[in-house]
User: Fold these one by one.
Assistant:
Number 1:
Amino acid sequence: MTGKVTGVYETCLKDGTKSYRASITFRGKHIALGSFSNARSAGRAYSQAQKILTDNSYVLSSYRKGQSLPFEKCVVLINFRDKGLYIPTPIYLEKKYFFYYLSPQHTLIFDIDDLFYYSSHKIMKRGSHLFVADYGSQISILSRYGIRSYAVEGRDYRFANGNSNDLRYENIEVLNRYHGVRQYAERGFQKYKAVIHINGDFVVGKYNTENEAAIAYNKAADILKKNGYDKNYMLNYIEDLSASEYAELYTKIRISPKITKLASAGINEERMAQDA
């Protein structure tokens, strides 16, 4: 400790530059508050943390831009003070759900069942894409609901209450579980069409069930690959069908004959698309 500023420790960076770390102990928990370029800034961070932890009138709306502590750390401290549980990510607990604060203006809502995961995985944002770093990869948070990375809101999934920040399971409805499958209505009935990308969206066929459309997509992808169309199509796995049931449907399902013709004619040089 510097001996001059409470809660501040002087350290050195790898290049020899002096740095000042602030920390505080509350309810037996030692909490790191961050590193600062000077002792005064580190001291202000300590004082702010002490106020947050001992003054219940300090709430999230009390935060002002330019304060010594970053907003995320304020969320962590307020949650620890109010709920008695230290969580290193910017989470504020409620009884059956929790808030995850990306910023003072952007808050996500999750079911309490997801607490363990998000207490150890920081959510990052790039444009409208929300992801976590997991095993060296960037994983979309929507993948936890079975939503593919290229899925389109309103077409492939929707939020029941219209709030895209409400990520509780009951609020997310997956409309299309499979690659290349889209729902549409025909004479009041729910139908499905298989669509595959060949320099544009090409309609493989229209079907009565989601499984049929998913298998039709697989069949089209198989034909294209067999005929030399070099594209990494992701095939659908139909969980509720046995191998024999899948094979039977695969054989029976008819797809657009243009698929074979396009593959044979060298589709890499053609733009063959239909209205999806």
Number 2:
Amino acid sequence: MSKPTILCMFSGGVDSAGVLHELLTNEKYSTFDLIVHHIHLWNRENRALVELEAVKNILNYYKNEGKSSFVFTQNTFDTRGFAPLKSNRFPMDMDVCAFTAAQLHAAQPAIKHVAMGRTRSDVEGGGKGFALRMRRAQAIFKSSLTIESAEPAEYIFPVVDFTKREIWDFLPEKVRESSWWCRRPVYKNGSDPQTCGACISCKDMAPIIGNQS
């Protein structure tokens, strides 16, 4: 990276697609280099493969549109081995993203901002629990950098002024078609993933796009 850089944590979901779209098209981010990072989250929800497909299709769309001025990186975080504990809890996405972002920042001090997909819908409807999770994630990020000499990057939220519906509306059609939101995909015949229609993400999206199964 040759100049101040933004690290975009990208899942392939609607919110992070909105963030990526803003970073690639909004003039106020044009002075930054961009790293787009995807985490293969292998856990009991079994959505890693379908999220990866969404990531590939969305990034290919922007490359075909001539917006390929970013570096793509990726890593794997696997908690499937926790299964014998029979626990309903496993590391939250925010926490995993925060820890990973800190490691990338330590490796690349040019990173000045970490872009995340917080929306107006999250702020207005997430309640106390969401605010606590956000503070914990940022604490994880900063504590992971305590031995680094560089000033920690700042979290930014490029779509925080937009609701989820507004993000859906401004995304290009092919990006909307490629995005994935369901947390517990249903695989028919071992493949062909379908949205479950019952998880919190499906319920959030249902009024926007209609129920899918």
